[in-house]
Amino acid sequence: MVFIFKERLLHLLHCQLPNGSIRHLLELDPDLSQLYSISFSTLQSLLHLDPSSKKRFSEQFYTMDMNKLLSLYHSNNIAVITYRDEEYPEQLKEVYDPPLVLFARGDTALLKRPSLAIVGARKADDYAKRSIRLLLPPLLQKGFIIISGLARGTDSIAHQQTMMMGGKTIGVLGGGFFHLYPPENKTLAEEMSKHHLLLSEYPPIWKPKKWFFPMRNRIISGLAKGTVIIQANIKSGSLITADFALDEGREVFAVPGPIDSPLSEGTNRLIKQGAKLVSSGEDILEELLF
């Protein structure tokens, strides 16, 4: 029964339905036992679809070969974790619009360990690298998993430095595993999938889209006890992660920077607004270990 539910939930997800639409159906049919027995018009009505979504859904619902897709995922060592599975992180259920499904490659046991998110500018400079090197050792010694978004700049540095120091790291993607972005991080992602963990709420066959990345940030902050912003300009996506963390009741930390650097504008503003200024890993541990 568990497998049947998982397969049916995946079928709906692959039809590009919003989580909210699927949740409407789950409220009435928690096990999706009637998914293939009710009329299609009734199904569309229960999903609360608008006209454009109805057209796309009707095209995909009947052409999706889930057996083929599940076989493809299995052969690529991709695990599927639904919100009802034991492996699903409890803290992630507290975020706005929690993912119904997580796709995972690597060590899913890392999801049960305490973690900290580190994010920042894609154009991060040597100051970001030095800051991360300074912050990480005491955090890793206490067993914290480092979470980031496998993006250029700060994210990549956070993953790489964690691995170099013998720690464990989780990368949350803004698209499917088969369409890794940015492509230059393919080697890093492969290493992480073998010894660490990659996560995505998007099916592996989906290509990344612009609006996937801001939504991805709620998972980064939602998995972590706190979020550290290293460098960020005033319009940085990492500030979205900080906002999600605040909404989720998690700690937000910021590394201060030179007042004449655009990459410091976002972090310095966060500090003015109440984020904790940090200059060492111990500053972070003071808030997280209580």
UniProtKB/TrEMBL annotation:
The record lists the organism as Siminovitchia thermophila
Q: Give the residues annotated as coiled coil.
A: none
Cite the PANTHER family for this sequence: PROTEIN SMF (PTHR43022)
Q: Which InterPro entries match?
A: DprA (IPR003488), DrpA_SLOG (IPR057666)
Which family does this protein fall into? Belongs to the DprA/Smf family.
First and last residue of the signal peptide: none
The Smf/DprA SLOG domain extends over 80-288
Please identify the protein, giving its name as recorded.
DNA processing protein
